[in-house]
Structures are given as structure tokens and as C-alpha cells.
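#struct-queue
[09:14] JT: dropping the first one here, sequence first, then the C-alpha cells:
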Amino acid sequence: MSTRRVLYALGGTVAVLLVGAILHPGFASWSSLRVMLVVASFTGFVAAGQMLVVLVGGIDLSIPWVLNGAAIVLTTSSLGQTSRAPLAIVLALGVGALVGLGNGLGVAWLGVPAVVMTLGMNGVMQGLTLGLSKGLTCASCGSYAPEPLRGLFDGALPAQLFLWAGVGLFMTVLLTLTTFGRRVYAVGVNPRAAFLSGVGVRGVTVALYTLSGVFAALAGIALVAYGGQPSLGLGDPYLFESIAAVVVGGVSILGGRGHYLGVIAGSLTLVAVTTFLQAQRVPEYGRLMIYGLVILAILFAYGREKAHD
């Protein structure tokens, strides 16, 4: 079923591109596809972490302000200087890992429901970010991404896409070729049975939430590299988009089933739908409604598939 859902997600992407190409010549041109791939990569980074926690029946609602906090840490610690970029990247990723670790410990060891724990952590990160930045991320503060990062998006085939491909390879190897990956699926299917078979359920859960934080921070770094400068609320759209990409990509929201290839296809489908609606000059409220209806239609199709299995 997992492979079938990946094919469904890929089919959705192709269908949107074909319809767009018929109605708008140039919609599926390389220049247009290049932009869609770059935009989809941001969702793909965040959705990688979201997928990991969903696989064990969890959810990460702290993504928006982990992403935002990491973006601000990157620019304020690098001050746009190339020589400070490596340390700034490590610090930004460290912020994501630390928050993810806190989420994992709260969920796995303290028994706090994932929704409550991660939503609370999102609020903590929002308060810290606003307090430490004093609500300002302005050009006068020197809050720019270092030049090498901004170069990720240069050229006909941006390095950003190779980075996304690397994330895809990492996720595929981690989940399909390692003992840890088999344990993730085992915990998602039945945590009690996994525990009785010797799987460290708490350790797996903590590791997954930590990785989710790292991927959210990676998305923050990529977005700052793309835009050159962070802004407050930068991560807000990516909570819904990450969950939507995971669900559209065929990952079971109850855990235990899913593949990152489907999430990649889900990310591309969402961006293609948004781009098509913009090309059709559909108003914002209309785009939101159609966007939601497309997601519900795909979920309905998955539900019918499950009922017939």
C-alpha cells in the first residue's frame, strides 16, 4: 500500500503539471519547474522531520518558531560574514536539535501528549525569539545571510536541489536500510509490542523529535539563504504545509507506514497546485479553499483504498 500511495502522490504532481501546461504554455517549462522545485524543497525539509514523528504516531507543532529561531540565530551570529558562516550554521542547527530534544524528552519520558508538548515549546521559542531579537530583524542590524549561502540558488540547477536530494537519500537509507529505521516502523505499528521485543521506544522517540528539530532548523537556514534575511513569522506557513505534504505523500497519520519519496511528491504537488491557482489568478481565499479541498480529496482516496484492503 505504501508504494501505491507514493505513486498516487507522483501522479497528482504530474496531473497538475499537465493541466497547467495545457492551460498556460510555459507552466511546465524548466524555468518554471526550477522555481517550483526550489520552493518545494523548503516544505520538503520541514516535512522530513514531521514525517519522522508522524511515523511513531506523533506530531511536531513547534516547527514554525524553531525554523524562525534558527533563521535569526544564523544571521545574527554570522552578521553576513563568510568567515563566520560555518559556526553560525552549527549554532542554528544546534538550536533545532536542542528544542527537538526537549520535545522528545517531554513526550517520551514525561508522558506529555505530543500536541501539548510541541505546541508549548513553539510558544516558548516564539517568546524567546521575540524577546532576544526585540522584535527586530532589520537590515540595519546586519542580519543578512553570508554570501556562500545565498549562492545556493544560483545557476540553472541550484545547489539547494542537491541538498534536498541529499536529505532524500539520508531519509531513504535511514528508514529502509538501517536497524533504526526498522525500529521506527515497529514503534509506529505497535509501541507495546516493539518494547516487548527489545526496542528502546523512548530512545527512538527522542531521536526522532531531535531530528525533526534539526530539519526545521535546516529549512530556516535555507529560507534565509533564499531571501537573504529573516523575518518574524517566517515559519508560520510551514506547519500546515509540512503536515499536508506528509499526508498527501501517503504517510499514515496513525504511524507505522510511509516513505519519504511520497513526501517529496506531496511537497511538489502542493507547490504545483498553488502555482497553478496563482496562474489562474484565483483570489487568496479561493486558493485556500481549493488547496484544502485537494488535500481532503486525496485523503478520501486513501481512506477508500484502506477500506478495500
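[09:21] JT: and here's the second one, same format:
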Amino acid sequence: MNASTPATASHATLAGSAEITGHPMVLSLSCKNSRGIVHAVSGALLSVQGDITDSKQFDSPDTGTFFMRVEFTTPESREAVEAALEPVREEFAMDLGLWEASRKTRTLVMCSKDGRTLNDLLFQQRAGTLSVEIPVIVSNHLELQPMAFFYGIPFIHIPVAKDAEGNSNKAEAEAKLLDLVAEYDIELVVLARYMQILSDDLCRKLEGKAINIHHSFLPSFKGARPYHQAHDRGVKLIGATAHYVTADLDEGPIIEQQVQRVTHAQSAREFVIRGREVEGSTLSRAVKWHAEHRVLLDGKRTVVFD
């Protein structure tokens, strides 16, 4: 099979007509597109009695990269599946990931004073609608500590400030953050309105593993009070962008964007309220897709399998 066009398959039993019982798993991969990729992957899953319940593929016309995400069940162990896929990975030089579908992504959330997006994430984690486990919250302020206590999650205060001589403790603060990432076995860092710019070095260390949220007014309305600036200019759409963090400020690969129409009759305060709602839902959706292994990097872009 030449997998060169977007495709979707659903519930294709590999081992005959009888449905295979077992535990659900998720496989995602990317490699240079060539003939036989889907056939090879399917054959490897067949060898471990895999039952494909969902499969999506995409061939990037810009980079020539083939992307695939597969949901399947198998009675075999994760180690057995990895062993079956290893020859395929080597043959096609794949960047391949395999996860237990029930396993939650360990996520560290960073915040400052605005708690709307943090609350959205914590509520959805508690409700079971986000496949994440949040073992710790980090903030450069103390205002949101009560929210962390309410949800029963440790809150670590790491202030970032300058001393009387103008020297910043940012390097020490980021070192503490990386210590927490290691201590809590963190797989994803989410900046939920964390109002500090990360250093280039930290961005590189967290590449592909950190998600940020911001309003979609950039570059027109920079700095403080962007919603008030937008209101003064009479904009008709407000929105939010969730993206991976890179050293290029607010220019990382975009995962999700949402917009909402506003009118001249709404106040600047209403702009802020509606904007925060959009930011919360946009960030939650991006985190959900990442935690479900639906997002793959394609250069400066992302491929998102819904």
C-alpha cells in the first residue's frame, strides 16, 4: 500500500474475523514517505494479535514526511509490541512512540496570578476529561496557592526577581524548575498564563514538551492590557493560540487556535472575560491532544490527528 494521501481506517481486525481482547495502546510515527509503510506497520501489529480500532495517516506535501497514528488493542505486553515494531522502525528510519492508552501524561503547570486557565486544567483533570496527571504546580507568585490547595496539588513558589543591583535570579529559578521536572518525572510543562519569558536554554531543554497560551492579537497589540488595546481599536474578533514553546518568543509550532466574535457594544472588561474563556478552552484542547499523542511536529508546523 502506498501511504501518500490522508486516510482514515476504523476497527480493522488484523487477526481474522474474531475480535481481539486486550489492553488499548497508541502508536504514532513519522518518517520519510515511501511505499509499504502502512503494510509494514500493520504486519507488525498482526504479529502481536493487534486489533486496529482507529488509524489516521498524512503525507506532508511540504516536507515529504509521512505521519501515522494508530489506536489498537493487543493481548501482548508493551515490550512485545516494541520488539515487533523495531525492524519496521529501523527499515524506515522512523521517529516512533508507543504508549498504553490508559496511561496519563505527567504534567507540571506553571502560572502567575491569573487563575482561569489553571482552573480549567485542574477541573478537567479532576473530571477525567484530560488524560493528564498534575503532580505539582509552580508559580512565581503566591496568589493561586489556595486554588492548588483546593485541588490537593503541591504548590511550589519559585519567585523570579531582581535584587537591588539589578541582578536577576532567573537562572537559579529555572534550575529549580528543571530539578522539579526530574523529581516528579514530568513529561509535559504547561504555561497557564505564566508571565515570565523563559530563557533560550530552558526552551531548548523543553522542546516539544512545553505548551504556552496567549491571545491572538500579536503582533498588533503587544505588552500589557492587550484586550484593552484591542477594544480601543475596535477589533471584531478575539482569540487565543496554544503552541509549543521555542526560543523564538510566541512563534513555536501552533497546536490549536480559537476565535470569538465581539462587538462595539462590549466593554474592555467584557473583552477580557471572553478572551480568558477562549484562552482556557484553547489551552485545554491543546493539552488534551498532546496527552493523547495526537500532535506530531512537521518542521515549524504541527500535524494534529483529531
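[09:30] RK: nice, looked through the second one.
[09:31] RK: Residues 1-17 have pLDDT under 50 and may be disordered.
[09:31] JT: good to know. Helices lie at 37-46, 78-92, 116-127, 145-150, 170-183, 200-205, 226-233, 268-291.
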